Amino acid sequence: MLGYTIRRFLQMIPVVIGATFIIYALTFLMPGDPVAALTGARPLPESTVQQIRLAYRLDDPFLVQYGHYMWGLVQGNFGIDFFGRPVLGLILERLPTTFALAMTAWALKMVIGLAIGVYGGLRHGKAGDHFALIFTVIFLGIPGFVIALGAQTVFGVQLGWVDPAGIRAGWPMAFILLALVMAVEASAGLARLTRTSLVDVLRAEYLRTARAKGLSPRRVIWGHALRNAMIPVVTYLGLSLAGMLGGAVIIEAIFNIPGIGGLMVTAINNKEGTVVVGIATMLVLVYLIFNLLVDLLYGVIDPRVRI
Q1: Contact at 8 Å (CB) between 110 and 237?
Q2: pLDDT digits (tens, 9 = 90+) for 277-307
Q3: In this predicted model, what pLDDT tens digit does every residue of 68-113 receive, in sequence order?
């Protein structure tokens, strides 16, 4: 198991390098001058502008800037913004809000997706199965921001059930609509995977043998079918937890939530590339860590993957 863990960890290194390189390139090769965005309509003296450009290495070649950023990243330094604040501190300050939203959405996604997937899988070819398929097709096809804007307008503005923006009500009331929007969209993929996995397991030969031995339908379903059908679903759930953090960024921007999504939007508007790259890098690292944990857990469940 130790050798498998080391191999999986080493495989993360080129992924981190490749992902950060692409993120850094897309951010810092975009047109526009960050110093001009910082000063706005009232330009600074040329000497001050030169000091800012020198302090933040804005005139260095791209590869030099990237190498300097990666050297700082290895030391745990995500850089500083134009106001001298550590980017890592800004991220950690807002991360609890984003994490609370992502965890709430993940829990709702698990309940909705598993319930609809199991319901459709146990009723393969019947009305329940058709309902599950229609649900997944609809919410896989509708973009998440459309669902978010529609829910904000109907439930927040027209009906007034929740605040259309902000988190003044606190958890869970301020998060329930946002989390439900994220969960409904994401649960469609989970429901489809659960339904397909369960249908495949129900056709397996060993279940026919279990029925032939006289086991009750309840024991066949809950003791054998669902247990084996959940193996790929558990893997998907583990990886989707990290993906929820990335999905929360868009929802936070729509609902004006003070999480890392709002920080990202502000940084993009101000052309603060260091903050944008720092947030994106943090999300990549979180995803890779969750991916590693899922792989290690899967290696414990099924020793064949360690070969």
Answers
A1: yes
A2: 888 888 888 888 887 777 777 666 555 555 5
A3: 888 888 888 888 887 888 989 999 988 888 888 888 888 999 899 8
Alpha helix (H) residue ranges in the chain: 2-28, 34-39, 46-55, 62-74, 87-122, 127-141, 144-151, 173-202, 205-212, 217-219, 226-255, 260-269, 273-301
From residue 46, give the alpha-carbon distance in Å to each of 84, 121, 193, 267: 20, 68, 59, 24
CA nearest to 109, candidates 6, 248, 229: 248
Per-residue burial over 86-122, b = 16 or more CB atoms within 10 Å of its CB, e = otherwise: ebbebbeebbebbbbbbbbbbebbbebbbebbbbbbb
DSSP string, 255-305: HT-TTHHHHHHHHHHTT-HHHHHHHHHHHHHHHHHHHHHHHHHHHHH-GGG
Specify the DSSP class assigned to residue 156: I
Residue with token string 């609370």? 100
Give the start-to-end residue ranges of the domains of the chain.
87-306
| pTM score of the predicted model | 0.78
Whole-number Å distance between alpha carbons of 270 and 276: 10
Classify residue 164 by its DSSP letter.
S
d(CA 103, CA 164): 20
Could you give the angle at the alpha carbon of 151 between the alpha carbons of 148 and 153, nearest 5°?
Answer: 105
Fold (CATH) for 87-306: MetI-like fold (1.10.3720)
